[in-house]
Design brief:
This protein is α/β, with parallel strands linked by helices. The protein contains 13 helices and 10 strands. It binds flavin mononucleotide. The site of flavin mononucleotide (FMN) has 26 residues, from helix 1 and strand 6.
Length: 348
């Protein structure tokens, strides 16, 4: 694929998200999870400790700005710089969007050279897993990690998106074996993630047998990639735009994946993401077994503004998270993790 096509595609994704409010599905289901309020928390709010450790680095609270952009265009370089500066200042984790652009276009590398702005936080590189069936391997993946000076590599799984998009790569066969090979050779851990349709029990089991110890739920209910791609389809006899809208709510929610993940917690770590929008959603995710919580789309607009705007949004979510933790009577974030006693039993 040409460098022009990859950058154009990224710009079209952003345009679609800004134009169509229904790309946000509001179906994560977090409102149906009920927490047990403490009227007598026996804690000093000013001493609540929200910090946690992620990829061997301490972060101020378990927030990760999830994968979005990168590329040679000025606005894409600016978005990533704003995210990196803000994430470093607020001491939270950051992941970049697909780095395929920098393999086909050297000019895109700049947008991923983020260590200069973010020396201390966990940074995660990003590659489409399906590219392993299209001539990508350790050379490209390691280059992506090295340019970002990343702590881990996201391998994203996006079969629905690839089907809907006009130029999609749809051969997903024998990927687990290739993932296992890459995992053996790469200098940092691989994290398997979806892009908004969730991961099933079978996916997680396959990943674990491939040696993967980190998974990102990236569940349904927030940003719908099927709906985004529907905007980019040219009329064709099959009318892919209709297909994109039909499948816009396909998949498992973050809550469903976290439920599945419970039985794998002794073998793997889970990042909760997909439809997480508030500090309350984050607290619920940690209680259900997420070690860290990813949010993507809510950070797009602030990142198009300035690093100060991104920081404001992080601070806002941090406050929501801190208040929730306090009202549950948990002095430390580690006290929330898989603490069933904090959720009422009538969650259905
Ligand atoms: C503008 C934008 C671009 C994205 N690009 C990528 C990408 O390049 N690679 C990837 O793994 N996920 C990508 N995603 C998916 C997100 O990382 C995330 O998995 C998904 O949007 C669900 O999270 P959300 O509901 O918080 O947005 C992108 C999301 C957005 C909003």
């Amino acid at each position: 694929m040409s460098k022009k096509t990859i950058t154009k595609r990224k710009q079209e994704h952003i345009k679609a998200i800004l134009k169509d409010p229904e790309i946000e599905r509001y179906q994560s289901g977090f409102d149906k999870v009920h927490l047990i309020h403490r009227g007598l928390p026996e804690l000093d709010f000013t001493k609540i400790d929200t910090s946690t450790v992620f990829l061997d680095k301490t972060v101020s609270f378990p927030l990760l700005i999830s994968s979005m952009t990168g590329g040679a265009d000025k606005n894409l370089i600016e978005i990533n710089k704003n995210l990196a500066l803000a994430a470093e200042k607020q001491q939270i984790a950051l992941a970049v969007g697909s780095q395929r652009s920098m393999i086909v276009d050297k000019d895109a590398e700049q947008s991923f050279k983020l260590r200069q702005f973010a020396p201390n936080i966990p940074l995660i590189a990003n590659m489409g897993a399906v590219q392993l069936n299209y001539d990508y391997g350790i050379e490209q993946a390691q280059k992506m990690v090295d340019i970002l000076e990343a702590d881990a590599l996201y391998l994203h799984l996006n079969p629905l998106q690839e089907i809907i998009q006009p130029e999609g790569n749809t051969n997903f066969s024998n990927l687990a074996e290739k993932i296992a090979n890459l995992n053996e050779q790469l200098s940092v851990p691989i994290i398997l993630k979806e892009v908004g349709c969730g991961l099933s029990d079978k996916d997680i089991k396959l990943g674990i047998s491939a040696g993967i110890t980190w998974f990102d739920t990236s569940g349904r209910g927030g940003t719908s990639w099927s709906r985004i791609e529907a905007h980019r389809n040219e009329p064709s006899p099959i009318d892919k735009a209709k297909l994109g809208n039909l499948f816009q709510d396909w998949g498992l929610t973050t809550i469903q994946v976290l439920e599945i993940a419970k039985k794998h917690q002794d073998k793997a770590n889970f990042i909760a993401s997909g439809g997480i929008r508030t500090g309350i959603d984050m607290v619920k995710s940690v209680i259900m077994g997420g070690r860290i919580c990813g949010m993507a789309r809510p950070f797009l607009k602030p990142a198009m503004g300035s690093s100060a705007k991104v920081e404001q949004h992080i601070q806002c979510i941090h406050k929501q998270y801190r208040v929730s933790q306090f009202l549950l009577g948990a002095s430390k974030t580690v006290d929330l993790f898989l603490n069933k006693a904090l959720i009422t039993s009538n969650n259905k």
